[in-house]
């Protein structure tokens, strides 16, 4: 009789372990597949996009906005191209 109880308890434990493993795997798959989850990988991707951005400047000649790395500085002003810097300083 005690052997039967031992086997019943063992089967119950195995079933409970398998169910908890399946539930954890299911939650992991839902989190990766949907893409709508705001936490986790999406948040890090968004911060990476923000890190890549650079400040924009306004051309003193034509008013166009351009990346600060492409700025042409002349007499303390920022221009979108060397041509506009020359036009303004003439
Ligand atoms: Zn310009």
UniProtKB/TrEMBL annotation:
The organism's taxonomic lineage, starting at the top: Bacteria, Pseudomonadati, Pseudomonadota, Betaproteobacteria, Burkholderiales
Domain of life: Bacteria
InterPro entries from the UniProt entry: PP0621-like (IPR049708)
Official protein name in the record: Deaminase
């Amino acid at each position: 009789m005690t052997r039967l109880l031992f086997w019943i308890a063992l089967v119950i434990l195995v079933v409970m372990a398998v169910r908890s493993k399946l539930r954890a795997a299911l939650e992991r798959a839902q989190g990766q597949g949907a893409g709508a989850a705001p936490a986790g990988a999406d948040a890090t991707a968004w911060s990476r996009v923000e890190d890549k951005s650079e400040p924009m400047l306004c051309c003193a000649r034509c008013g166009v906005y351009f990346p600060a790395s492409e700025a042409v500085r002349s007499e303390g002003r920022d221009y979108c191209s060397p041509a506009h810097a020359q036009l303004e300083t003439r």
